[in-house]
Amino acid sequence: MPPAILAVVTIAVAVTACIGYFYASNLFLDKVLFPPRGPNAGRNINRANLIRPWLFLFPALFALSLYLVYPVIETLRLSFLDRDQGNAFVGLANYEQMVSEPKFWEAMRNNMLWLFVVPAASTAFGLLVAQVTDRLGWGNIAKSIIFMPMAISLVGASVIWKLVYESRPMGTEQIGVLNAIYIALGGTEPQTWLTIPFWNNFFLMIVLIWIQTGFAMVILSAALRGIPEETVEAAIVDGANPFQIFFKIKVPQIMPTIVVVWTTITIATLKVFDIVFAMTNGQWNTQVLANYMYDKLFRAFDWGVSSASAMVLMLLVLPILVWNVRQVRKEMQ
Amino acid sequence: MDNIAGTKSSLVVVTHLTALLLVLLWIFPTVGLFVSSFRTADQISSSGWWSSLATQEAQNPAIRLSGKEVQEGDHFVIEGELFEGREVVVSAWGTSSRATEAYSPGDTAELSRDRTVTVSESGAIRFTAAESQEGKRLPRVFTTATAPPEFTTANYELMLFDPENTESMTRAFFNTFTVTIPATIIPILVAAFAAYALAWMEFPGRAILVAAIVGLLVVPLQLALIPLLKLHLNIGIGKGYIGVWLAHTGFGLPLAIYLLRNYMAGLPRDIIENARVDGATDFQIFTKIILPLSFPALAAFAIFQFLWTWNDLLVAKVFLIDATGQTTVMTNEIVELLGTRGGNWEILATAAFVSMAVPLIVFFAMQRYLVRGLLAGSVK
Hints:
heterodimer; A: mainly alpha; B: five-stranded antiparallel beta sheet; four-stranded antiparallel beta sheet; 14 helices
């Protein structure tokens, strides 16, 4: 079947099935199972109302269990098995093999570097943009432009920045902006920025910072708007200068939002795959965990070690997960 | 507020300048690639894209003379234009790569075997020879000339409409669409019902479920790849569209439920209770009241999911793209081009912009909903 027709059929089937399921199951509950009539009408209504939420929830819960909960448990299980030995239980052997690989530690080091730099820089830039565009006449246009990279794929962004980092041999015209500036400022020869170990990590991070700043800006800008005017006015009356107002009055008040932005970007950073995959593919000491995992899965065909490295990712996310869940539970009470 | 003591006018200027600088910094890389996608390969490799926007003097690559030969007396003459239809001013020219600026416009260069070439300022050429040049290779001329900005849509024609081009983006473009649309619609449907139950129905365990969904929100999808791929292979879906639709649905659900629940929980209680009192069932309340009122949240999530599935690489690579290469998506095409055509920026830039066009249009058209969704979606 041609993909386009398959897509249309799938949409039709899925939509009909979904609506049909909800309609029919509710009907069944009300008309057949516990009809609100007869001698047990009251009891039946109560029973129907006990079951109904689960009718509404069932498809979603089923999909979530199958596509997120089960895989987490299964990945944990797989990380203790060895495929070459017929899925035999090998204990921590996969983990041991993983930690003995220098590539893994390189990925860990780089991931940590990303975790420190990207959320910090994105949040800082986002805050700066939110503040300077706050009362500008053309602030909305400025925000739109800085927000725009959010719509661009990580792969597209990688192409955009690869052109910036492009390097041509000495003597020919430089077509990458960075090298053109570098030569104009007196650099002796063009640099291949993405192959300079250690620093190339930062050239990759710039791409994600460029994308995530827009996100930080949108959230922080709304938070800045939400600050009560009186607090700022009071500070002005007390003779505070603009910088004091920003750092001592505004920033403390939006601290909870800054934390949210920071953690959200941290999660996005942790999972970074496309940028590294498209720009360096982990060469020149730029490996990260997600790409390491992909390598293990599709190049080395080693499910065990791949699962083990995925569990490392999960472990790194866990503190944020717990913190988020706690926040929500506090809110709901 | 700004005029009260405490803010200085100098600071206002600094604010404007900082904002301007940041905006330029942010848009500059994108503009670079965009401009490059409208330049020819020669133009891209001979000058930076930033210099293409102004009239500039540049050395042109060698152009081999061509044209119709006419006999004038005992000479054979070929006349023609080097830069057909372009407003070019030649400042110097030459006939060998070692002396590309040997002659001024209007000069006549004497070549071997009684041949001469004249190049005028406008790029008109006159070539004379003692014997017919039929079937022989004509000489080349090198020119240094100032030309106004010149752009071409040839790259887009090549990448989109050329049936001969094996690297064409057309198929990948439609594949991406095919992945995206069901992967956006299905999770919305499933999530909307669940969100309603979590927002407006009382039942034991509700709080725990909400918390669990917030927890699932941050689970890295890397964890899901191996078990699900095995699952798909075992139950016979294998690698294909069905698999990628299911995967995107599963991965999109936590955010969908979370966003929609937050929004629905904020709807006025009165409306829903009035409807209940009037005898509406939950199903009716949901379809007749909640769904229409939740349109902004539905739109916000739809945009998120659309952008995310359109721009996705990893899920498509794992669940969709098989060895035949028939089901490739645009992001994957671009990554492959990066590998095989690393220096061909006219192809890379065009491919990248073909894939970015739709998300950018969606982004600018629906920005309001996107912002609203982001504000509702970040865990407070």
